[in-house]
Write a structure and sequence with these properties.
The protein has 23 helices and no strands. By secondary structure, it is mainly alpha-helical. The chain has four domains: about 60 residues, Orthogonal Bundle (434 Repressor (Amino-terminal Domain)), CATH 1.10.260; about 120 residues; about 100 residues, no CATH class; about 100 residues, no CATH class. Helix 14 runs antiparallel to helix 15. It is globular. It starts with a helix and ends with a helix.
Length: about 400
Amino acid sequence: MTEPAEIGLRVRTIRRRRGLSLDTAAGLAGISKPYLSMLERGERRFERRGLLEDLASALGCAVIDLTGEPYLPGDRAGAEAMATLPPISVALFDATLADVPDVPARPIEELTSLAQAANAASAESRYSLAGRDLGALLTELHVHAVTGDSDTQRAALAALTEACFVAAGNARNLGNYDLSVHAARRGEDAARRLGDPALTAFAAMTSTSSLSRMGARHRAQQVATTGLAAIEPHADPTSALPAAAEAAGMLHLSSAQMAAKDHNGDRARDHLREAADLAERTGERNELQFSFGPANVRAWSMSIAVELGEGADLAERITGTDGFDAHLVTADRRAALHFDLARGFAQAEGARDIESVRHLDIADRIAPQRIRHDPVAREVVAQLDARARRRAWELDSLKHRLGVG
């Protein structure tokens, strides 16, 4: 299993092969020469995703060239989850919205139900269950979308979009970014063909997330901006069915995170305020498992604060509130919040490492298939281990579970 210490070594190897000095590479990445040197030596770690993306861009390589993803699975559930990705890839390349294989397809009602069940499993970070037979499901939905009557085609396009959300999310969280982007784009195509504004905006959100994780930040920002412009006329948070407002809110959250990665705190906070305003009026919602509402805005604000280097202060304020994660209804979002709290406390330079360990342990127990495949989670564990003054079984357990050291 690739250990996170290798990220710094990969940075140094690629930098030298590119013929770049420490000064030049650091300048291109927007960091100091001493900081880059510490990253290469493993004395500092990558607790910010934006830092990984900035360095990949500076070195002219992909993020996965630095992280070594996808990782070999460390347990049976991880192996089963990884095994679901090849059939998904085959299905998306073998069928298009213009041409499909000559295969039988189950009734559209059954396939719609299966797509919804897969999405629910993915939201619980149960990727092995969500991805089981997802390749066949995608193929059959393509068949109905191309060959069915008008009503069947519309139902198939809606279910296909949702199934693509699952495929994109699973591939992204398991480290296969190319497949994630491909699945997300197919979902965008299906949603646009259906002509549903809210579904199209949710599809844009999925593409934005996939592109951003890959490090294609410029394209991700374009997709988010275009998606926001298209959905905002429909985004009425007081509607009885405010799906469009939820989708707009999610695009604002994604835009805020990308602005934070670009070190633009003012723009990040502007988008965060827009999302918070929408969430205040929609209340807690969960259209298509996106979990939009005040609780999720608070969770995203934690991730954004980490990217801005302000994670420690916000983590302190969030955890000082009783039931701060009570309204996050899916395992994916609860785990994401606790993971970002761990990253935030880790930014306190050792003063709050006990809290960082605790929240990372909670995140892993909630959603192990998500956390154990995340390169940043491994980096945080390695950072905590390097700073530990004495051995602690909680940290040793995390190292074992995440395959660190």
